[in-house]
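dumping this here before i forget
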Amino acid sequence: MSRDILLKERWEQLVNILSNQFSQGEDLDLDAIIYLIGVQELGKVHNTFEKDEKLNLMHIAICRLLEPYGFYEFEFFDEEGWPHYKVKEELPALKAGEQSVLMKEAIVNYFIEKELID
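structure:
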């Protein structure tokens, strides 16, 4: 099976699982899934977040997702428990479609690591 087909199947499986769990079956988009990962990584799943905190959660998720690719490295948790990352390598200039594929691949790999999908 080609890599693209496998990624597409895993992505659809993941969207179904997360959508059923978090949005009563309405498909979550890429940003919503990134937000959920940020909340998971922060570990404060029952908190209500302000708008700027939601953006920070998405940043945490992106750093965590792209860490295995060598773009970010975890540095420390601050006094409030928020993780901080440093840039190891600048992201290459990618077209919108390429960014989407990279993020979907990183998200699928994250949930394989967390054993939510195979």
